[in-house]
Amino acid sequence: MTAPQRGYSATKDQLLARLRRIEGQVRGVEKMVDDDRYCIDVLTQISAIQAALDKVGLGLVDGHARHCMREGASAGRAEELTTEMMAAVGRLMKRG
User: What is residue 31's predicted lDDT score, i.e. its pLDDT?
Assistant: First the structure.
């Protein structure tokens, strides 16, 4: 059985590599806390992780708009997919 084509399928290896780097950054923050590092240094690294995740998220939105939405529009689902994507973008942009 073939995996479905997704908006990120063409760059899946790059996406996975970026996510692995982010995972390493998170482990680094965990070590910083374990080592009792200065609060501002920990917060700076958390900010860098959030920026990296935002970049991944925006890349996924771009791929979704260029691939999934185009396919959905040709299948008559443009309105539904637009609503779904805008809700996802809204969740992506929300921060505590």
Answer: 98
